[in-house]
C-alpha cells in the first residue's frame, strides 16, 4: 500500500484502505494552507533535499586544534579525548601535510612547555614550544593557516591566564605579557593570533604591539565571548593548564549571560578584532545566533573538548551513530551562524564529507 508518493491513484488506494479500516482521511479546509501546502513535497528524495538544503559543511570550515608538548618524545594520547594526542616537536610536519591535504581550513596551536613559571615566560620565548611548532608547520605546509592561542595558562606555574598578585589575576600587567606573546608568534610565522585570556583591553593591546612591531597585516581572532565553562575539563588535562587555586570566573564570562556576550563582542570589534568567537559552542548556540545577527565580521565557534568528549563517550557505548551525530552537531553550529568551527572532529569530519 504505497501512500508515500502522493499521486492520485495511490492516494485513492490508500483512502480505500483507510476506509476499509474505518479511518476517514482528514482534509481540514482552512488549516495553514493544507492540502495545497505540503511541506513534505521537497523532502521526497535526496536530489530534492540536496537542492533546498540551507546549510552545508566543508572541510575548509574547520580549524583543527593541535597540542604540542616540549616534554615528550612520542605522541601521548589524551585519555578524555579519544583520538587526540599531545604531539612532540618533530612530528608536526607530517601532521600539517595530512591536515592540509584534507582541505581543512587551518590549525590552532596550544603549547605545553617543559618548564612553567610565575610569569609564563615560555609563552613569549623566541624558542618556545609554540614558536618552534609554527616554524615546523610553516616549513612543511606553507599554505596551511596557522592560528595561535594567545594565553598564559599553559605556561604559568599557577595555571591562571594572567599575572597573579596576592591571589588576583592582574589585568593591565597581563596585557604586556600577552602582547609579547602575540608578537613572538608573529615573528615565528603565525598567520592569525587568537587571544583567549579574557583580560579587558587585550585586543587593543595586541593590535598596538603587532602594529609597532611591523605586523600591521596580521589578523586577530578574538575569543570574545568565552564562558567560564565546565566543558573545558578535558582540554585542561590535555594542555596541563588547570588553575592551581580558585577558578576562572573572575575573568571568563558567566554562562547565564547572553546580552553581556554582545557587549564583549562589541568591545573587541571596537578594539580592532578582525574575527570574533563564541566559546563553547553547543550550550551557547543562542549567543552565536545573536552575534551573527548583530555583526558582519567572520564568526568562529569553538566546539570544545568537553563537547567532543561527550559525543565520543556516547559513541563508544554504542548509544549514538557517531558519524551522523557529528555531522549534525557541526551543521547545527554552522546553521546557528558560525563561519568557522574550531573542532577536534575536523579530521574525521573532513574525511566523511569528502569520501564518496
Ligand atoms: C585557554 C584556553 C582554554 C581552551 C582554549 N584556550 C581553556 C581554559 O580557558 O581553561 C579550552 C578549549 C577546549 O576545552 O577545547 N588557553
The N- and C-terminal alpha carbons lie at a distance of: 34 Å
CATH architecture: Alpha-Beta Barrel
Briefly note the CATH topology name. Answer: TIM Barrel
Helix content: 25-40%
Radius of gyration, taken over Cα atoms and rounded to an integer in Å = 24 Å
Integer average pLDDT: 94
Count the strands?
12
Q: Structural class, please?
A: alpha/beta
Q: In this structure, how is the largest beta sheet organized? A: 10 strands, mixed
- Enumerate how many helices there are, as a single number: 12
Q: List SSEs in N-to-C order.
A: HHEEEHEHEEEHEHEHHEHEHHEH
Low-confidence stretches: none
Overall geometric form: elongated
Provide a short characterization of the protein structure.
With 356 residues, this protein is an alpha/beta fold.
Amino acid at each position: 500500500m504505497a501512500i508515500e508518493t502522493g499521486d492520485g491513484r495511490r492516494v485513492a488506494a490508500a483512502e480505500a484502505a483507510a476506509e476499509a479500516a474505518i479511518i476517514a482521511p482528514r482534509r481540514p479546509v482552512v488549516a495553514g494552507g493544507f492540502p495545497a501546502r505540503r511541506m513534505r513535497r521537497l523532502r521526497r528524495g535526496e536530489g530534492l533535499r540536496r537542492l533546498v538544503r540551507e546549510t552545508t559543511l566543508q572541510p575548509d570550515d574547520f580549524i583543527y586544534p593541535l597540542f604540542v608538548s616540549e616534554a615528550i618524545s612520542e605522541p601521548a594520547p589524551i585519555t578524555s579525548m579519544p583520538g587526540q594526542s599531545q604531539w612532540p616537536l618533530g612530528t608536526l610536519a607530517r601532521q600539517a601535510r595530512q591536515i592540509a591535504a584534507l582541505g581543512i581550513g587551518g590549525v590552532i596551536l596550544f603549547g605545553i612547555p617543559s618548564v612553567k613559571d610565575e610569569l609564563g615566560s615560555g609563552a613569549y620565548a623566541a624558542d618556545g614550544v609554540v614558536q618552534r611548532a609554527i616554524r615546523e608547520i610553516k616549513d612543511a605546509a606553507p599554505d596551511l593557516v596557522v592560528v595561535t592561542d594567545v594565553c598564559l595558562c599553559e605556561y604559568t606555574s599557577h595555571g591562571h591566564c594572567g599575572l597573579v598578585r596576592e591571589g588576583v589575576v592582574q589585568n593591565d600587567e597581563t596585557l604586556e605579557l600577552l602582547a609579547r606573546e602575540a608578537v613572538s608568534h608573529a615573528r615565528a610565522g603565525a598567520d592569525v593570533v587568537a587571544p583567549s585570556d579574557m583580560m579587558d583591553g587585550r585586543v587593543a593591546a595586541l593590535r598596538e604591539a603587532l602594529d609597532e612591531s611591523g605586523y600591521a597585516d596580521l589578523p586577530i581572532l578574538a575569543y570574545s565571548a568565552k564562558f567560564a565553562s565546565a566543558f573545558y575539563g578535558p582540554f585542561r588535562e590535555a594542555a596541563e593548564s588547570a588553575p592551581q587555586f580558585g577558578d576562572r570566573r573572575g575573568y571568563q564570562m558567566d554562562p547565564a549571560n547572553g546580552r553581556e556576550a554582545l557587549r564583549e563582542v562589541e568591545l573587541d570589534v571596537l578594539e580592532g578584532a578582525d574575527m570574533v568567537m563564541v566559546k563553547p559552542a553547543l550550550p551557547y548556540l543562542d549567543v552565536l545566533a545573536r552575534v551573527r545577527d548583530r555583526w558582519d565580521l567572520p564568526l568562529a565557534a569553538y566546539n570544545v573538548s568537553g563537547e567532543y568528549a561527550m559525543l565520543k563517550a556516547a559513541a563508544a557505548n554504542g548509544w549514538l551513530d557517531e558519524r551522523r551525530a557529528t555531522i549534525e552537531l557541526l551543521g547545527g553550529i554552522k546553521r546557528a551562524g558560525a563561519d568557522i568551527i574550531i573542532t577536534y572532529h575536523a579530521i574525521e569530519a573532513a574525511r566523511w564529507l569528502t569520501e564518496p
